[in-house]
Amino acid sequence: MTQRALDSSGEQTPGPSRPAMIDAGAELDPVHPMDLPPSAHDATGLTTAEVAERVARGEVNDVPVRSSRSVAEIVRANVFTRFNLIIGVLWVIMLFVAPIQDSLFGFVIVANTGIGIIQEWRAKKTLDSLAVIGEAKPTVRRDGKAAEVSTHEIVLGDVIELGPGDKVVVDGTVAEADSLEVDESLLTGEADPVLKRPGDPVMSGSFVVAGGGAFTATKVGREAYAAQLAEEASRFTLVHSELRSGISTILKYVTWMMVPTAIGLIISQLVVKDNNFKDSVARTVGGIVPMIPEGLVLLTSVAFAIGVVRLGRKQCLVQELPAIEGLARVDVVCLDKTGTLTEGGMDITEVRALGGSDEAYVHQVLRSLGSSDPRPNASLQAIIDAYPAGDKDGQGDKDGKGEEASWTVTDALPFSSARKYSGAAFTETDGTPSAWLLGAPDVLLADGDATLTEIEHLNEQGLRVLLLARVPSGDLDAPDAAQDAVPTALVVLEQRLRPDAAETLKYFAQQNVATKVISGDNAVSVGAVAGKLGLAGAENTLDARKMPTDPDAMATAMEQNAVFGRVTPQQKRDMVAALQSRGHTVAMTGDGVNDVLALKDADIGVSMGSGSEATRAVAQIVLLNNSFATLPSVVAEGRRVIGNITRVATLFLTKTVYSVLLAILVVCTQVEYPFLPRHLTLLSTLTIGVPAFFLALAPNKERAQPHFVRRVMRYAIPSGVIAATATFTTYLVARHHYAGPGALEAETSAATLTLFLTSMWVLAIIARPYTWWRIALVAAMGLGFLIVLVVPWLQDFFALKLVGTTMPWTAVGIAVAAAALLEFSWRVVGRRFGA
């Protein structure tokens, strides 16, 4: 299992897993655990037989893993909707009182619902498969071995190992602790890490920020403290989205308008007008059905589902669907440097002895420090690679007992993001005690120290510098442990830049998304790295230790600078909050435990797949391929979804507005409703249904704008009013023009022509800016209607037949006037409110 470890400069980077208490797969003494005292039993864990007994008793961590909705839930959510109920009742009525062509709207709804179910099922499969890939696998001890198991395989009494970045997956009691610090902020709100000792309780949902250890599971499954919260928070959902809540608001308004209008229409057609009963019912249903924007909810779900599938192919796990939309609204991206702009690995370029220190002795100290830490981070791993145990100054160790074998570790201090250094104490070969710290030079040295000037020049080159300092033997964990540190050597490390980072930063700049690099490393060094990658404003660096604490002043500093160094985990959280206070939508990327608080509070949290379990748990988006370059794809997908749904929502709501207004006009004038259901099914399919599907899936790079409902309604209301007015005008003119048998069908045909042409112009406006396929789409819809008008059997099927030339051309003329009014109204709205 790849662990995450904080390096000595404040960043968190990937390091190989080396459990503190027991190596994975290592054999222990074959003593039966139940014959041992509790401490020894903890060392070996449960036996296979004991695990089987607990599973049989149901003492297993059976909390469902993060998953999408079940197939039953998907079917239920797509079938049992308020509008499907209304349409279903109307459909059944039409099947009994009218020809099959007047019941086509019901078959369309069945097809749409089927498409929605299939698309969400595909998204479910994608999400579930990605969730398995990204699932954390804790290390437990069984039969004297350490092995990785799935979270749901943990049983009561299991001994689970912990290291930096590991999430506590069930409740338990600490069995072993090596400077174990646990952050419980996600549960208690308390930001300060808690030092844990054997016997102390640990709660599920907390995570390790420093040190290592092991704990015994005392509560598993739904009894665990955070189980219910975790299950609910990790559920695949479409809620908490401005787009979804906006559509719900629209549907609520539509219901309010639809109910009284439909009642009036029913009374008008069935009571006031003395028509044929079946024909009256058909025309009443024809007036009610188009009021319902039934395809809007479906199309939104389909667009989100297809977004999940598309991103899944790029190894991007979207843990909450609104994250796709949220990232489209982001205008500030806060990046963690290590693991995001740079790759995890580092190389030592130089070890520079200070104050006349002996180089061979310095190398021995570094070699011993590397051997003292069972969980080396990236910085220490680079030191281990350069000075491996058993290798004296690169010459190897012939007898297998190098000089370092005589250096005995007497104390060890794991790295903490609060301290920004680690350390160890030794008894050297000749019995001399010595204690050493390795970490951030500007933390270990006093301000004004001459060594800092030398370090500054190295930082300006984008190099990472660690200081090896000797301290008096004593308590390494004391707050003033670094007070009398004597600089001994500089360890200069070179970070590997991600090859795709520069292009990704360029993309965000082109999209007017501000990029802020927030790092625990030295600000000048981080700025140099950002500068190499072409980050605009990389020269504007700020040491976070000089950051104002006032939220407003902090927000100003955040807006004026692009690179921040020596940032503590709590400061990262405060920085995100400061930006949000200025109205910014903030995305935070990270992979280490020092990023968890900020990831949780950001509008969108993005974690690397190789990140710590804690970061993956709180992030809405996990980049399983660890590639920062995937982010533009997520942004583009979000913009495609929200921009296109805003466009097509205007189409659907225009239909709702003109349907309601037509019904009101019919009630007020006491005339027959001009349309049968078949007419509006044909119009809806050609001017809304088919084109909306293609437009909703088209590329769209516009940054998402707020106030979805207002933006849609300010276009839909005037468009609907113009369409209804033009259509009813044509209908009234036709009523005076035609007389005798077949007059109503001729009047309906003329009104249908006007409504189709007006609706087509709305579609033509929404399809802009034109591309070849958009023009072809609009033309194809027009051609479809023309075919219906000229093919005899289609004329009969849809009851559409233009009679004479005067009235059809009048209908066209009225539609042209309506198109001119549409253009004028859209331009006025665009100038007044913005596009």
What this model shows, in words?
By secondary structure, this protein is an alpha+beta fold. It has 28 helices and 23 strands. The protein has an 8-stranded mixed sheet with strand order 10-23-22-21-11-18-20-19, with helices on both faces. Strands 3, 4, 5, 6, 7, 8 and 9 form a 7-stranded antiparallel sheet that branches. Strands 12-17-16-15-14-13 form a 6-stranded antiparallel sheet. Strand 1 and strand 2 form a beta hairpin. Helix 11 (322-329) crosses helix 22 (631-669). The model is unreliable at 1-41, 229-239 and 394-405 (pLDDT under 50). This is Cation-translocating P-type ATPase.
User: Termini separation (Å)?
Assistant: 50 Å
Walk across the major sheet and give the strand order: 10-23-22-21-11-18-20-19
Count the helices. How many?
Answer: 28
Helix percent reads 40-55%
Classify the beta-strand content into a percent band: 15-25%
Gyration radius, to the nearest Å? Answer: 34 Å
Domain P-type ATPase A: 138-232
Pfam family, one: E1-E2_ATPase
Main location: membrane
Keywords: Membrane, Translocase, Transmembrane, Transmembrane helix
Concise structural overview:
Helices cover 49% and strands 16% of the residues.
Features of this protein?
single chain; 835 residues; alpha+beta; 8-stranded mixed beta sheet; 7-stranded antiparallel beta sheet; 28 helices; 16% strand; elongated; disordered N terminus; HAD_sf; ATPase_P-typ_cyto_dom_N; ATPase_P-typ_TM_dom_sf
